[in-house]
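Section 3.1 - Work completed
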Amino acid sequence: MSDVFLFSLHSQPIADLGKALTVLNLSRIEKGKRPILFHTDASQAFGKVSVDVKALHVDFLTVTGHKFYGPRCGAVFCRKDLLGLMKPIFFGGGQERNYRPGTENTVDIVGLGKAAELVHLHLEEWRINLVRIGQYLAERMQKTFGDTFVFNFSVKTDSVLPNTFSVHFIDPRCKGYLVLQHAARTEASTGAACHSGKNCASSILINSGLTKTAAEKSIRLSVGKDTTKEEIDILVADLAKSVRHLTENPDQHTTGTLAGQGDGL
């Protein structure tokens, strides 16, 4: 079986990696070595930015339906010449081309296909609104909190997702999970759902360059294709109320459990 080289980035650097691997694999094949296979998890990108498997030069790509307003199921793209490498993990009937036994989940399959079709038809329209409303969120956060909060990553480049923002408040009393616990109208996250219930800093944020202290205070804010400016105003006011509560009543919040974990949009 060929070597596998995994990446899970969500913007066009994937294309640069794919091109580099294409060149590298030509050299490896000439030397009698197995090619490096390239998979990317495009769950966060699909429905927000263009995702083209040919432009990305990937061998495998996965998407998740609930990230683009579809049912909570997923799909994997595999290059046709690599289908022989796909092996079932369950055995029995011959459904789904012998990859997964059991009656096909027709409703979710159709729903995922329809959601993907809508992405294809409306992506640019949605992307423009995501950029517009995301910029408004950034402006409102900056105006309301000034130098008391930080965007963990740049929000002004074309290489970032237009709908997702990682932020933290400077005050050490404003741990991410506490901010969300005391935000009455905000549904946001401190990390991925797969880490739900763990009151600890996200290893992904730390490996992306944040300090452990900054990662512990971070929250992830997401906007959707239908998010309005009025909803952003409610969000920012809610966060401001929570931060004010934490900084004015520090002795009440020395312990707590993690809240607000989830996938975002």
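Second construct:
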Amino acid sequence: MDVCGDKGCSVSSKQPDRAWDSYLDELKQYKEQHGNCLVSSRTELGKWVTNQMREYKYRIQKRRSSMTNKRIEELEALGFDWYGKYVRSRKRLRQWHANVESLKKYKAEHGDCAVPYKYQQNPPLGKWVHNQRREYRQQCEGKPCSINSDQISLLDEIGFVWAARSVQRRETWHKFLGELMKYKDTHGDCNVPQKYQNSHSLGEWVRRQRDRYKTRVEGLPSTMSDTEIEELEAIGFRWESKMELIREDQSRQTSKTNEHHNLDYQKNHSSYVEKGRPSFPDSGNWVSYKGRLYHVIVNGKT
């Protein structure tokens, strides 16, 4: 519908000093070089393009405008975007890829793409990751979404975590890791008692990490990842519990004591044999032998 006629409603005083046709020729040259009319608004030509969008909008709203039918036809012949949809789309695409690069950096640092929703170091990244899951879920449900198959494939290639449950588990794991680090700062080690009074859940979590590690070492299916192992070992985590360490120490002490007693026995036994007494090849008579040996020593008989 022709709202204001071929001459337009009126000529805006905001029209650039250079002739309209000169800008149009410049826009044609830009289109030949770049394949589109998406000129940056930071340039003089870009400001002129923005003015054309505004004048066209004024015309549609039946306001004063310098936009005529002839100008509309000439711009549309170049594939002019009146509403800046392609410009906004291109900006969104650039921002999307920028977020992908941020996600790659996060993975290089943390070993996965499970960015928490409230990621303090980069809050927009956490929200963006959350939005990608939502858009993906809507696509799976056949609902309108802003994510396409190429973007999904790209995220799959870098190990994107689509399931929110996995992210929640990861967030919970890091929460307990932070509590364990605070415990170590206070107590000097990571040997949290299972029934730790200040946090029963922390003691239970530490026990589960040891169980998960043991299961993995035994070659059984385990949910413990290499990253989790590295993060725990980085803060000095011991895979043996405090009680296991105590039992191991007691076992070593017992072994040393038994070894000492055996040496004493061998010494006394050798002395007795050297004096012409028979040895006992039959271990079943060991107790009887020890009794006789005792009487020999006590009574002073040789």
